[in-house]
Backbone:
């Protein structure tokens, strides 16, 4: 029986790519493939005995193409502890083509799946089968409402539980105060404790059953087991009227109440931890003013369509990404670019949702609405990063998985040995209950993810976007920071300062160079084109344009010849003293040559960013070695390096040379961060342990870097390292605390030195203190 499967394939630039993939796929035994460049997909028939979908995907990826996963973040209701998250992750991971990372702290799952193999319905069904409630991402507002409603419901449950437990508390206080006998008759106690145990506490049984059915033990198992034992013993004593025996109804009721209290506080704290996203979402307005048939009407943003003409008045925030059709205005784009100076926009310019019209009026044609905007993309990225798993968490996950069975064994042992030694089986039972209750691994499960959530959220608020938790964790271990010069240390907006024409006049030289540069996206090219426009020099027609990354450009200029514009080394031209002097002053000097004849020299100045020198100084004070890598000439590099205060630098580097430097440092045992402008530094960024990109304006979210700096401020690179170190320190504190708490608590409980009520309180306090400790990171600066 052959199976058929259609996989999307991205990254193909022509039909030859398709042919190459097809050949590779057909080479696999039992596979018959047809790859289409036009539809960007691979139609596959395969024999399941010989091949599986994962192999097919791997084969496509080996050819250098990607099989885009569908990904989404799904809210998950009904998880009671980290073990639930681990179990759900296992269940989802077993679905074909699905990878999932479930966050207990974020109450969500980050999912990626292959569209040909699974669909969303199958994923949702699997979540439900595992006993959880999948919550589809509605608009954030509704989600916020839902979580507020959930919180109120939890609060009501807790209040009911507390009310029924209160008499026990009064009785306990009376006992401590010396009244030797309780005033609450046993039958009354039974009447109060039973609904707490089975109505309010029903969730623990349900959770425990679902977990055990899935082959894992979680916190619900411990709570259900512990409280049921206390209740059963007491109920038996009461109903059978056993003489000389204590009852422990207060233990079962109070443990349940305290666990609920702990959950409640935890939920509230977790809500605070994810507040960063809500803050980002609030930047976009809820309604838009749309022009329809000559009239202006207010439309909720989720009803906007592509092509709608939106009117944005002075003081309004933009509801969509789009193109200006008419009007002129100054926009504050700082929420996306960090640049606080307002930007002038007129017809034809691209504008972005959430930016604010400070002055003027615009009519904008909507191009991206709702979840397609850059802002939504950023929000998604932050949410995904908050829900992702840090490598350091694996230890805690492994621990919590074996924890519950181990603790159950300890409890059993406690019961048997205490009973045997003391001869009192009811006391033995209560010791065992205390062991079960104190040992809940909640704090252990919350230690890492809450710190990650707060750390990532804090970064986002400051314009530092972490791609995932791993990036956040690794940034703190960096000990070498490599920075690119153009567009990173410098502003990336060079201006033509001097021109030296060897024959003919300056304008002719600029005209020729600009014409060749018309095909290039490089900042230097933009500078030359701008100068040509300023001076009213028309561009000449060119053919056969070619760009040599990190060296320059070439093209055939109509009626003239082959013109090259690029580094002096590439063009092999001897530099006159005048040009050398420009370099010593920090300008980039570019040579121009035609058909082997030297035409002249151009000097372009690109000022340092105001933040560069300070940022590099801060980096060094953190013990990070700083090095500048540039494709520019040594003389220019030396001058810029001196100005920025960098004493290690390398010049004349092509993008692949930068990657070699990264690997050399790594081979010497260094952890390397590369900060670049993301375009021609791609090889070095990919090789580095941590890649940082300066977000050039609104394309921030598209950048594939581990860390994107939304504001063009170099100090944020250092902040990213500091924030990472701080977050890691928090995680270690949390883990140590959770661990010590259990290490001390379990033996005390086993020896009978902790009664179950105290154990319940300690357990609730431990999760709450871990979450609160993580929340302290919000104040980090
Ligand atoms: P950096 O490493 O400083 O970011 P690049 O790798 O982008 O610099 O470029 C290195 C050098 O190559 C530049 O300093 C310039 O001399 C030359 N160059 C690159 N692209 C162009 C271009 N489009 N026009 C002229 N020169 C270029
Ligand atoms: Mg560069």
Residues:
């Amino acid at each position: 029986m052959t199976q058929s499967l259609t996989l999307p394939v991205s990254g193909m630039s022509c039909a030859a790519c398709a042919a190459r993939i097809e050949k590779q796929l057909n080479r696999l035994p039992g596979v018959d493939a047809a790859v289409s460049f036009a539809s960007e997909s691979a139609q596959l028939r395969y024999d399941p005995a010989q091949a599986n979908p994962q192999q097919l995907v791997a084969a496509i990826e080996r050819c250098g193409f990607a099989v885009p996963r569908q990904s989404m973040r799904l809210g998950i209701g009904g998880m009671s502890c980290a073990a639930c998250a681990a179990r759900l992750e296992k269940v989802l991971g077993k679905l074909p083509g699905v990878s999932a990372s479930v966050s207990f702290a974020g109450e969500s799952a980050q999912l990626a799946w292959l569209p040909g193999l699974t669909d969303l319905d199958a994923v949702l069904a699997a979540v439900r089968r595992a006993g959880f409630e999948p919550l589809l991402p509605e608009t954030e507002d509704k989600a916020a409402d839902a979580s507020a409603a959930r919180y109120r419901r939890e609060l009501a449950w807790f209040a009911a539980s507390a009310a029924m437990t209160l008499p026990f508390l009064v009785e306990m206080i009376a006992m401590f105060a010396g009244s030797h006998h309780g005033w609450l008759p046993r039958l009354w106690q039974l009447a109060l404790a039973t609904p707490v145990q089975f109505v309010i506490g029903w969730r623990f049984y349900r959770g425990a059953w679902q977990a055990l059915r899935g082959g894992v033990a979680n916190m619900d198992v411990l709570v259900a087991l512990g409280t049921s034992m206390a209740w059963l013993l007491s109920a038996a004593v009461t109903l059978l009227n056993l003489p000389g025996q204590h009852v422990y109804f207060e233990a079962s009721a109070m443990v349940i109440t305290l666990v609920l209290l702990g959950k409640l506080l935890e939920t509230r704290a977790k809500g605070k931890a994810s507040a960063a996203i809500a803050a980002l979402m609030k930047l976009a307005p809820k309604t838009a003013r749309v022009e329809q048939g000559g009239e202006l009407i207010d439309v909720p943003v989720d009803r906007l369509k592509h092509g709608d003409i939106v009117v944005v008045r002075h003081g309004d925030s933009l509801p969509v990404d789009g193109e200006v059709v008419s009007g002129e205005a100054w926009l504050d784009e700082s929420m996306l670019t960090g640049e606080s100076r307002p930007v002038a926009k007129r017809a034809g310019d691209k504008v972005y949702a959430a930016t604010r019209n400070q002055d003027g009026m615009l009519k904008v044609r909507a191009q991206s609405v709702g979840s397609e905007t850059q802002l939504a993309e950023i929000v998604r990225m932050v949410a995904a990063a908050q829900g992702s798993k840090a490598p350091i968490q694996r230890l805690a996950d492994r621990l919590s998985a074996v924890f519950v069975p181990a603790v159950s064994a300890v409890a059993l042992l406690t019961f048997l040995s205490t009973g045997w030694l003391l001869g009192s089986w009811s006391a033995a039972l209560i010791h065992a209950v205390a062991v079960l209750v104190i040992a809940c691994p909640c704090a252990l499960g919350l230690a890492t993810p809450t710190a990650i959530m707060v750390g990532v959220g804090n970064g986002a608020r400051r314009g530092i976007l972490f791609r995932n938790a791993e990036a956040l964790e690794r940034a703190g271990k960096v000990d070498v920071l490599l920075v690119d010069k153009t567009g990173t240390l410098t502003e990336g907006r060079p201006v033509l300062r001097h021109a030296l024409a060897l024959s003919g006049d300056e304008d002719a030289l600029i005209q020729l160079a600009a014409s060749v540069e018309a095909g290039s996206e490089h900042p230097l090219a933009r500078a030359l084109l701008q100068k040509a426009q300023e001076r009213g020099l028309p561009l000449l027609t060119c053919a056969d344009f070619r760009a040599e990354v990190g060296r320059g450009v070439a093209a055939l200029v109509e009626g003239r010849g082959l013109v090259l514009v690029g580094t002096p080394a590439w063009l092999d031209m001897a530099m006159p003293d005048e040009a050398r002097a420009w370099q010593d002053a920090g300008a980039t000097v570019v040579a121009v040559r035609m058909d082997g004849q030297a035409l002249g020299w151009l000097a372009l100045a690109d000022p340092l960013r105001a933040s560069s020198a300070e940022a590099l100084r801060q980096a060094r004070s953190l013990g990070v070695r700083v090095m500048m890598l540039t494709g520019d000439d040594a003389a220019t590099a030396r001058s810029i390096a001196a100005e920025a205060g960098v004493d290690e630098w390398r010049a004349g580097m092509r993008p692949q040379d930068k990657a070699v430097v990264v690997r050399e440092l790594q081979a010497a045992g260094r952890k390397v961060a590369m900060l670049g402008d993301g375009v021609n530094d791609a090889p070095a960024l990919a090789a580095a342990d941590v890649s940082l990109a300066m977000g050039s304006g609104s394309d921030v979210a598209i950048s594939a870097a581990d860390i994107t700096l939304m504001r063009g401020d170099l100090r944020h690179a250092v902040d990213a390292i500091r924030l990472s170190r701080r977050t890691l320190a928090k995680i270690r504190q949390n883990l140590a605390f959770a661990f010590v708490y259990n290490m001390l608590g379990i033996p005390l409980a086993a020896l009978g030195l902790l009664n179950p009520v105290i154990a319940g309180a300690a357990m609730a306090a431990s999760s709450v203190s871990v979450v609160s400790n993580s929340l302290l990171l919000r104040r980090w600066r």
User: Anything to note?
Assistant: Residues 484, 486-487, 677, 680-681 surround magnesium ion (ligand 2) (CB under 6 Å). Residues 469-491+608-710 form a domain with the Rossmann fold fold (CATH 3.40.50.1000). The radius of gyration is 33 Å.
